[in-house]
Amino acid sequence: MPRRPRQESGTGFYHIVSRGLDKEPVFQTKEEKDRMWKIIRENLKKYRIKMYAYCIMSNHLHLLVKADLKELSLFMAKILAAYAHYYNHKHDRTGYVFQGRFRSQCIESEAYFWNCLRYIHLNPVKANLCKNPVNYLHSSMAEYIDVKSRKLLDSESYRLLKSRFYDRKEFEKFHRSSNGDFFIDILEEEFLERKAIAKEILERMHMEMEVSEKEILDYIKTRDLFEKELKEMFGISKKKVQKIREAIKMELGRKKD
Fold first, then answer.
1. Domain spanning 13-114+129-176, CATH class
2. 93-101 contacts: CB < 8 A, separation 24 or more?
3. How far, in Å, are 121, 144, 190, 243, 249 from residue 236 at the CA level?
4. Which of 78, 100, 153, 205 has the largest CB neighbor count within 10 A?
5. Angle, alpha carbons 99-246-4 (nearest 5°)
6. The pTM is what?
7. What span, in angstroms and rounded, lies between the C-alpha atoms of 46 and 75?
8. How many CA atoms does the CB half-sphere of 166 hold within 13 Å?
9. Coil, helix or strand for 4?
10. Can you spell out the DSSP letters for 128-183?
11. Where are the domains of the chain?
12. What is the predicted pLDDT for the residue at 146?
């Protein structure tokens, strides 16, 4: 059975997330993060991809890009394969390095674009790796603040910055928002990310068991297996797992209608 096709963004903007297999820290060292960064830079020249934000963490990476969906898929396949080859060779291992397909979230509004960009830049702050996102070496925040450090960002990203913020100080202040909006954004983005991964798990169970996705969520035995896998993967409470399951179930119900 073929995989569910990716949703295409009406604006061409996507938030991309790719994670190490089983949460393995595949970008653990500075050398590994630098190699991923170089692979991205080399392939941006070969594909029609516009970069607006990025952050390379220890076990996953975030990209905010504008691209044709087919071109984006080719680009991601190339950079992930290139890094997997490097990583396997370095650690004398074989097999998969990344967890399934990369996740793509459509960015359909300007507000969501800026919230997503902020979320990406604040990943290392949330992980207690730094207090100021400008100080994190492997994200685009420093490129926005220091024009001389331009490396991966598309020139259009700076034009958008100037159209939205009076100056770079205001841009930094946007990242230090204390009015609660940021925390709402973080929680919402985390929920969407977990739900997207949960849908991939559900799809896999559907293919393996040859049972409909709705039946998996409805029947106690399969539902418990699904929830157990989510709980172990995300390390969250049963209540949060059930919230994800209910959200997916509602989506399936809307599609049926």
1. alpha beta
2. 96/21, 97/20, 97/21, 97/24, 97/26, 98/18, 98/19, 98/20, 98/21, 98/26, 99/18, 99/19, 99/20, 99/21, 99/22, 99/23, 100/200, 101/3, 101/200
3. 24, 34, 12, 11, 19
4. 153
5. 45
6. 0.73
7. 8
8. 4
9. coil
10. TS-SSGGG-TTBSHHHHH-GGG-SSS-HHHHHHHHHH-SSHHHHHHHHT--SSHHH
11. 13-114+129-176, 183-256
12. 81
Residue 87 β-bridge partners: none
What does the CA dihedral 156, 82, 230, 216 come to, rounded to 10 degrees? 100
Tell me which amino acid residue 85 is: H
Instruction: Please name which of 98, 66, 60 lies closest in space to residue 81, comparing C-alpha atoms.
Output: 98
Which stretches of the chain drop beneath a pLDDT of 70?
A: 1-5, 147-150, 177-187, 255-257
Three-state SS at 116: helix
> Taking the CA of residue 128 as centre, how many other CA atoms within 13 Å lie in the half-sphere pointing to its CB?
0
Q: Which two tokens stand for residue 28?
A: 């653990």
> 98, 19 in Cβ contact below 8 A?
yes
Give the per-residue SS3 of 203-256.
HHHHHHHCCCHHHHHHCHHHHHHHHHHHHHHHCCCHHHHHHHHHHHHHHHHHHH
Q: Residue 178 has what pLDDT?
A: 45
Beta carbons of 54 and 152 less than 8 angstroms apart: yes
End-to-end CA distance of the chain: 23
Beta carbons within 8 Å of 255's beta carbon, 6+ residues apart: none
Q: Which residues contact 79 (CB under 8 A, 6 or more apart)?
A: 36, 39, 40, 43
Coil vs helix vs strand at 93: coil
pLDDT at 3: 58
